[in-house]
Queue: 3 jobs
Job 1
Amino acid sequence: MILIPIFIISIGFHEAAHAYAVNYFGDDTPRLQGRLTLNPIAHLDMFGSIMLLMIGFGWGKSVEYNPNALKNDHLSRATMEQIIAAAGPLANFVLAFLSVAGLSAIFFTGSLSFLMEAFLISASLNLLLMFLNLIPIPPLDGSKVIRPFLPFSLLQHYDGLAPYGSILLLALFFLPGISTVFSNGLHSLTNGTLMQMGKILGLGALFGA
């Protein structure tokens, strides 16, 4: 099944982006833990991998870092942590765009057509991962991206959500009614962005746009 290897590569790229961002800001924790690599094996989480094999969806091992070790003369610690958090979803966006570019090359040259399905799955999956990780619910990346923008009066209440983040995510995925709205919204964002990428790269006919 082609989805699983593409998923593993995409998750590895996502976590590697976090690791390289942490390393860029001076913390060598990811390097010491062997996370400065695009090899997806280094980023696999045992339970996330089991879930991937069982239900077709999983997650990678979170990149650890020491906030006190982050250094930059021009950026605050909060901004550095925002960039570190955003690096993962951005990596998925880059992979999605490159996948659509691969589709465009195949579409216009007529060569390597056997790769079209893989590129299409990669583009859709990476956009899905990007939007999913940008949801502002702890421990997803979106919660760390949005946190510095929140007014001080809301921070305590927002941080109080952290222990319940996993429960909230499970509700979004599995609670009847809510899961349908959530899934439809996520797929609508994914498909809409994919179509816009296709238009930019001249694939309007392929995506029916």
Job 2
Amino acid sequence: MIKRISKKWRFLISLASIIIGVILLLVMTNNKTKNLPIPKDAVIATKKPCALSGSLVKNTISKRKPIAVMVENHVDARPQSGLDKADIIYEGLTEGGITRFMAVYECQDANKIGPVRSARAYFLDWAQELEAVYAHAGGSKESWERIAVEPILDINEFFYAQSFWRESKIGKSREHTLYSKISLLRKIANEKGWNKPIQFKSWLFKDDPKFDELKNRKTQMTIDFSRPPFFITYLYDPTNNVYFRTEGGVAHKDTISKKQLSPKTVILQFMRSWKSFSYNNVATTSMQTTGTGEATILMDGKVINATWKKDTIQSRTRFYTIKGKEVQFNRGQFWIEALPIGTPVTIK
């Protein structure tokens, strides 16, 4: 004789069957979708803009302490290493019409940077506005005096030799053989407690225009810093929306990657300049980085007439259109040319 199941038990059995079915359905759905690619918008949403370049990067490195490294540009020092990894590169005159770079790294690391050379006073103003650790080997008389009294986060090779190395080569002067890398410089910064959150306000950033808007644009700009080896040319490439850089008529390439340097944005910043002296009484160039002045910006295949403003040594330099609106920049590497007023510039 078969016993009848009570209504209560029939209800419980039905409920259990439904729950088991839902669980099986969820497991099957998860197995089908777990290997699907993550939508591009979702990936972008998990990233943050790099404070210096605006490039979208992992949140953990989006506001790292910037590291500024002085890199020489003597003809015998070319080609350099690590400039392609910098977020911002400043270029300005030193002695004898030779230019020097300050490469600033926040959201990318470089395993070889150099040749590293000495400090120059006006580069200190940009290092301070970016709250950057400042790496160099020696310096001019004015820069030594300022580093001694101003809040410079200073890593001088003279005192931190463990963060640098030399690569000697037959026929190359010792002054062109010094290198460093970001991990070594960050190690010193960590030990000294300098890796505090940055406070400066980023520039404004935008997305690149579509290729259809760029494909017919052509721009070539040449800067005459002093003499032929220091004639700098930027040639616009609409395919990648970048500016290929040449020095003295030769493509400026990175030693390691072998790729031609190609910033997204080039800024010509015109400033008052005067002669000062290095530690051995050799005449060098000083620049007035504070106040206001004229600027020319290369971006998206266009030439933008602009102005710059920097209220104090510690405040951020900002750029404005002729109508007074702050410029929105492309995300990517910046190259800033610090030019004495009257420097010859040709645009085609």
Job 3
Amino acid sequence: MLNKLKEDKINAMKEKNVVKKNILSTLIGEIELKNKSGNGELQIQEIYKIIKKMIDNNILTNNIDENQYIEHYLPSLLSDNELEKIINDFISENKLDGLKSLGLIMKYLNENYSGQFDGKKASLISKNILL
């Protein structure tokens, strides 16, 4: 993923797209900083978290236009039906019940489907199934 980002940054420079070059430079810098502070290369889920955080920050600072340059690096979101099926299957396989199981469900989703679901929606679906 990092190599793809660097390649896209070079293309943005060739296209003289300063905004795209800057946003990709920032994203690459964040990933490389995390790589240096951690042990080895980042997992793809960690890179997704960095991208998602950057998108959220752009929304908060009204730089929404910049998101068009980085959103496509995230995997597509699961539909409500797909998310509900995944949660149902996990609950059934692990014989979970009660809201105390919510943390286990969210942990499972984050480990296996990071960046592919809305946390609030997943929590709501999980609560509806568990209750």
